[in-house]
Amino acid sequence: MNHGLIVIGGSYAALNIAASAREAGYSAPIRLLSAEAHLPYHRPPLSKAWLAGTFNPASLPLKNAAFYQERNIETQPGTTVNRIDRAGKFVETATGDRLDYDTLALALGARARPLTLPGADLDGVFYLRSQDDAASLKDRIDKATAIVVIGGGYIGLEAAAAIGPSGKPVTVIESQTRLLSRVAGRLLAAHVESVHRARGVQLLLGTAVKQILGSAGRVTGVECEGGMVCPCDLVLAAIGSLPNVELATDAGLPGPGGIEVDEYACTADPNIYAAGDCTLRPSSHAGGQFRFESVQNATDQGKAAGLAIAGRAATYDALPWFWSEQGDMRLQMAGLMRSDDEFALRGDPEEGKFSVFYFRGGRAVAIESVNRPAEHLAGRRLLSADGLAIGGLAAGKPVTPAQVCDPSFDLGAATAAPPAKPPAPKPAT
Question: What is the DSSP string of 381-414?
Fold first, then answer.
């Protein structure tokens, strides 16, 4: 009997594994199992427009039910898988059902890193990872009088920006001495800090949280090391994430820091693939194994896994790129920078529109842009020109840090792909 493909997951990677496999000619049954009671959906709006109350929930699903029906992909939302039996090639659900597979794909995502502080279990402490998280958080924000966000990364800052227009006081507490310390350069972080302060967000940098205070089981404030107390009745913990690897590691697959896969998204078991936030994959851009958390990686790696499952394997080593929207500030990043990289600034942060290009050994390796989308695309072409190939963008010519800093230098023209050669004329007969 042909059992086909089982995909476990509920977002970008899961959808793209199933759809890509089918479109590449995989004809056996495909079943998509998700623990959440929703079809795969967009997650970036949850920390932005959803919290701001400007997002239409009807736009959240990635695809409607007809999409799956037309491709003969069976969806089973609300199905939790408890165990993988690799020898028997089946999975066991929380209800005790046994589902056999020929090929298994894991798109398990990641979960919010929990607080390990006194008071972390009080009513009023929230995390933000899922649609249900966002719905519960939005309801409490509407009723709250003061909000504390623990963590100065992208999720925490996006949430602070979304809450800001409500007029409710928001405090962001970050243990590091600057915002975005693990994911952005100093120039970008300094600009983001100045924008949030100008909007009225209170930022406490280099400040560790000691405990969450409460009364009658509900949050009343956050106490920092040193004794300072921030009164509040809602806390959003945004201190990073943990990959959901337990289902895989319990089945004997390696990867405590992420499910280890190769350049084809295949695990140590040739019958099991994995993609998205849960994976640890080889990357020439990172110089080794790396876990990427982005829509781009989940989408592209999911497509690569689907192609491999359908017998059309192609290596996957895409340039990572990300974005963040914080109010009217749109941040776009591509590549991976290091603190010791040479950098070149293009534009003026005071005007709220600029880009920072990073160079290593004379080669462009990363770009960070604020409200300059066209320049961001030119920068991605620059990265491609310097040897970091990316799908969908043809390479232009390499440029130097001095050229990047020169406002008269036409970056778009310099990095534009050369025109395609016209087809050769047919020989006369």
Answer: HHHHHTT---TT--------HHHHH-TTS-HHHH
124 φ/ψ angles, rounded to the nearest 5 degrees: 115, -5
Among 304, 376, 276, smallest CA distance to 335 is for 376
CA 65, CA 58: separation in Å to the nearest integer? 13
Residue type for position 227? G
Q: Which domains are assigned to the chain? A: 5-111+242-309 (3.50.50.60), 125-239 (3.50.50.60), 328-415 (3.30.390.30)
User: How many residues in total does the chain contain?
Assistant: 429
Give residue-wise pLDDT tens across range 128-147: 999 999 999 999 999 999 99
Contact 168, 160 (CB under 8 A): no
Residues whose CB is less than 8 angstroms from the CB of residue 274 and which lie 6 or more positions away in sequence, other chains included = 105, 106, 107, 108, 248, 259, 261, 265, 267, 305
Core vs surface per residue 374-399: b (16+ CB within 10 A) or e? ebbbbbbbbbbbbebebeebebbebb
**pTM: predicted TM-score of the whole model, two decimal places:** 0.92
